[in-house]
């Protein structure tokens, strides 16, 4: 089974609107971390937001928030007030400390977001 | 301050040749990771180093791949007898410590095997 699933093939959003990018994950580890990274066309990976499995509140970072639903094993990224510069690939990733590789990240296949003016 | 740097930015090599890819992590970061990103795909973990501990090589796809980290800083990923399926972007990342959740990525090396 895939550890991280991102099934949306591509997303379009109107500038200034909000958009949700879906991510589901699979783990039996009670302690894990969930991440979202942005990859613009230039190729660099930019860290956006982190959610720990024991965090009581959903993570927020500026216009980014993570809709963490632990029972459903989903960690959707919400981008509010989309900007043209938000057009990029977005990757969901997970870290499972007990697998023996404390810090390796397992990535989903990514979602392409296009913001329309 | 300087981020993670990688060299070369692009490498074209013939099938069967060996290549070396270099990564300079952020100064003071003790953890260093290598990932591979094939066209249109997510990142695939290859190997990580933490301080003086033995590296976790569980992601290396074959024994043609190896990596070392000298002096706890610079790392070199070596691919021997390159194959066309090795063509990908190789990304290096570093973090302050294993327990630190944010990994800082370099710009990557785009490897093309002809």
Characteristics:
A: 117 residues; mainly beta; 6-stranded mixed β-sheet; globular; B: 114 residues; 0% helix
Oligomer: heterodimer
Number of helices of chain A: 0
The radius of gyration over CA of chain A amounts to 14 Å
As residue ranges, the low-confidence spans of chain B are none
Count of extended strands of chain B: 10
Determine the N-to-C terminus distance of chain B. Answer: 37 Å
Shape summary of chain B? globular
Q: N-to-C SSE series of chain B?
A: EEEEEEEEEE
The number of helical elements of chain B comes to 0
Helix content of chain A: under 10%
Low-confidence stretches of chain A: none
Structural class of chain A: mainly beta
What sequence of helices (H) and strands (E) makes up the elements of chain A? EEEEEEEEEEEE
Greatest contact between two chains: A-B, 26 and 27 residues
Tell me the major beta sheet of chain A.
Answer: 6 strands, mixed
Number of beta-strand segments of chain A:
12
Helix share, percent of chain B: under 10%
Strand residue content of chain A: over 45%
Explain what this protein looks like in three dimensions:
The complex is a heterodimer of chains A (about 120) and B (about 110). Chain A has no helices and twelve strands. Chain A has about 120 residues and is an all-beta fold. In chain A, about 35% of the residues are buried. The model of chain A has no long low-confidence stretch (mean pLDDT about 90). In chain B, strands 2, 4, 5, 8, 9 and 10 form a six-stranded mixed sheet that branches. The radius of gyration of chain B is 13 Å and the shape is globular. The mean pLDDT of chain B is about 90. The interface between A and B is medium-sized, with 26 and 27 residues.
